Amino acid sequence: MQLERLAPGQFSLNGIVNFDNAVEVESEGRKLLEEDIVPGSVLRVSLGQLLKGDSSTLSVCLSWIRLAQSKRGHLCLSDMPGELDALARVCGIAPILRQNTCPAS
What we know:
The chain is an alpha/beta fold. It has helices spanning 22-34, 55-70, 82-91, 94-99, and strands at 3-7, 10-13, 15-17, 42-46, 50-53, 74-78.
């Protein structure tokens, strides 16, 4: 699986997420995240172990952010790779991702 629970509310997205596996990664990750989402919760997803991503990776992240919001929780992203950040700027979703960037711990 691409999304790994490190601790309650702490996750890491690992490996390669692209058009070939994004649907599976989103679905499996959704099941894992739903176990930790309660109203007021903050889930942290690190992208630091992501080896390769594309626009489908951004779509997966946005889906998980919406999932947390729909359950009155919050999902934040950390360790965004530069290449993915640049793609988010080109796609016009950088402001959304910035709103969901984890504060420094």
